[in-house]
Design a protein that fits this description.
Blueprint lengths: L1 H13 L3 H18 L4 H11 L5 H24 L5 H7 E3 L3 H8 L4 E5 L5 H9 L6 E5 L5 H11 L5 E4 L3 H7 L6 E5 L11 E5 L2 E5 L2 H9 L3 E8 L6 E9 L9 H16 L18
Parallel strand pairs: 1-9, 2-5, 2-8, 3-4, 3-5
Antiparallel strand pairs: 6-7, 8-9
Helix pairs in contact: 1-8, 2-4, 3-4
Length: about 290
C-alpha cells in the first residue's frame, strides 16, 4: 500500500510543468537551507575538509549554490516518472555518444563510471536511449524497500535494467557474447567488507569501491567515464564520455580505480556546487 501511494503521489507531481516544479524548488531551497538546515553540518564540514585553501566566504558561496541546485535535482528526479523520450533528449545533450557506442559496435562490453554529479538520474534515462544494447545500472539497494522499488521502476522506464551491485557479475556472465554497458556510480561509501582500498580524494583519506576495475579486468572491457554537466539554462545538461582505457591488461593493481576517481575529483573541483555534498562520504576511516 505504501508503494502504491508513493507511486501515485510521484505520478501526480510529475505531471506538473517544469516552471511550476521550479517554483516548488525555490520554496524548498528556503526550507532546506534556512528553516530545517538540512544536513548543514555535513555539507559545511565536507566543504571545509575538501577545500581548506578557500576562505569561509568562498565555501559559504559553494554551499548556497549547492542548496539552490539540490531542490532542482529533487523535482527533476520526480519529473522522470512521466517525462517523454523526446524531452529527455532535449534536456540532456550528448556531446560525443560515439565514444561509448564504438566499443559496443566493436563487440565489447563497456564498464561505465559516473558520480553523484549533475543530474545522474536523468543520465540513466539518456543512456537508455543511446543504444539497443543491454544497459545495466549498478545500484546500492536502499534500506526502504518501497522507495527502492518505486525509484527503480522510474529508472527502468526506457529499458535500463537495475542490478544490485552484488549481482552485477552474474548478469554480465548471463549476457556473455552480447555487448552491454554496465554503469556504476563510483563515489558511494563502501562497507569495510566491500573494500579496503583508501585513496586521497578531495583532500581526504577516502575508502573507495574497486568494482569498476574488477569488472573491467574480468570482462576485458574498456572503462568509460560519463561526465554530466549542468548547462546555464535551468533543467538542461550535457554529457560527455571519456574512454579512460581501451583494455585493462596494461594497468597495475588499483591504477584503474585511481584513474576514474582522479577524473571525478577534477570535475568536482571545477564546479563543486553540482556534487552531492550532503552525502556523508567520509564516515569510513582507516582501521588501526
Amino acid at each position: 500500500m505504501k508503494q502504491k501511494a508513493l507511486n501515485a503521489l510521484i505520478y501526480i507531481i510529475s505531471l506538473l510543468p517544469y516552471w511550476f516544479l521550479y517554483l516548488i524548488s525555490d520554496g524548498l531551497y528556503y526550507i532546506l537551507y534556512y528553516i530545517i538546515e538540512y544536513r548543514k553540518n555535513i555539507v559545511f564540514q565536507n566543504l571545509k575538509n575538501a577545500f581548506p585553501e578557500k576562505t569561509d566566504k568562498e565555501r559559504l558561496l559553494i554551499a548556497k549554490k549547492f542548496y539552490r541546485f539540490f531542490p532542482d535535482l529533487i523535482v527533476e528526479s520526480i519529473k522522470l516518472k512521466t517525462i517523454t523520450a523526446k524531452e529527455v533528449k532535449k534536456r540532456m545533450i550528448l556531446e560525443n555518444a560515439e565514444e561509448l557506442t564504438r566499443h559496443l559496435e566493436a563487440g565489447k562490453n563497456v564498464i561505465g563510471v559516473t558520480s553523484h554529479y549533475g543530474n545522474w538520474e536523468l543520465g540513466i534515462h539518456r543512456l537508455s536511449l543511446i543504444t539497443n544494447f543491454p544497459t545495466l545500472i549498478v545500484y546500492k539497494p536502499l534500506n526502504n524497500k518501497d522507495i527502492d522499488k518505486v525509484y527503480n521502476g522510474m529508472r527502468g522506464r526506457f529499458g535500463a535494467e537495475m542490478v544490485p551491485m552484488k549481482q552485477i557479475l552474474r548478469h554480465i556472465v548471463k549476457l556473455k557474447g552480447q555487448p552491454n554497458v554496465s554503469i556504476l556510480v563510483a563515489d558511494q561509501t563502501p562497507l569495510y567488507s566491500d573494500s579496503d582500498y583508501f585513496i586521497n580524494w578531495l583532500n581526504q583519506e577516502t575508502l573507495v569501491y574497486t568494482g569498476a576495475e574488477r569488472l573491467s579486468r574480468i570482462s576485458k572491457a574498456p572503462v568509460v567515464y560519463c561526465s554530466i554537466n549542468r548547462k546555464p539554462k535551468r533543467g538542461h545538461y550535457s554529457c560527455k564520455f571519456y574512454t579512460l582505457l581501451e583494455e585493462p591488461s596494461g594497468f597495475g593493481e588499483h591504477e584503474i580505480t585511481d584513474l576514474h576517481n582522479q577524473l571525478a575529483e577534477q570535475l568536482i573541483r571545477e564546479t563543486p556546487e553540482y556534487w552531492l555534498w550532503s552525502h556523508n562520504r567520509w564516515k569510513r576511516k582507516r582501521r588501526k
